Amino acid sequence: SGGHFGLAVSPDERLMAVGYSEFPGRIEVYSLVPAFAHVRTISSPGPGSGRDAFGLVRGLKFNAAGNLLVCDGGKGYLHEVTVDGGWVRSVRITSAFCVAWHRDVVAVGTGYCGGPNYIKLLRDTGAGWTPLRDVDSGMGCCYGVAFSPDGSLVLGVTLTKLYVYDAGTGAAVRSFECLRGVGDICFTGRGE
């Protein structure tokens, strides 16, 4: 029941995770091979996180380690959890809505109705996340973020506009009007 907001496929393409936004939020993990099957439900960031349940699960991505990056917009956190439901780490980000990563940089778009909204870039140190910069505090609710394949650009999408930024400096490169109702964005492997 409830709407799903996040969908992620593991790097090895063996697992799929679906994030649900009703309160309390949850993540359903499914096996894709050899046959589609429910594996488990993850209902909290796990012991050690200091939180007993997810708020509203919004953005969801697997990272290179095969762990889930989870935007908990309801409680204002980015969590990293294992597919077994174990807590790895958390950082407070008000209205965390969507997430992307490239090598050691994580981008989190915020989605607070009434703003201000921005894309927060964090460096993954292995032991935690260190803030690098906030990009564009004037954008609307950020529904999707993505890195270009080489990591030089970061995209942010609102319901009506696509923004392109230099990932190194945070400077705006370009923006495009788009169809109403855009919910996420990605690059192809060819950088398109």
Quick recap of the structure?
With 192 residues, this protein is an all-beta fold.
Q: What structural keywords apply?
A:
about 190 residues; mainly beta; four-stranded antiparallel sheet
> How much strand?
over 45%
Distance between the termini: 35 Å
> What is the alpha-carbon Rg in Å?
16 Å
- In the predicted model, the low-confidence regions spanning at least 5 consecutive residues are none
N-to-C series of helices and strands: EEEEEEEEEEEEEEEE
Helical content band: under 10%
Principal-axis shape: globular
- Arrangement of strands in the largest sheet: 1-2-3-4
- Give me the number of helical elements: 0
Mean pLDDT: 86
Question: Which structural category fits the helices and strands?
Answer: mainly beta
Largest sheet: 4 strands, antiparallel
Number of strands: 16
Question: How would you portray this structure in words?
Answer:
It is a single chain. This protein is mainly beta and about 190 residues long. The chain is built from no helices and 16 strands. The strands form 4 sheets. It has a 4-stranded antiparallel beta sheet, with no helix packed on it. Strand 9 and strand 10 form a beta hairpin. The protein is globular and about 40 Å long. The termini are far apart.
Topology:
Blueprint: E1 4-9, E2 15-20, E3 26-31, E4 37-42, E5 57-62, E6 68-72, E7 77-81, E8 87-92, E9 96-102, E10 105-110, E11 117-124, E12 129-139, E13 144-147, E14 153-157, E15 161-166, E16 172-177
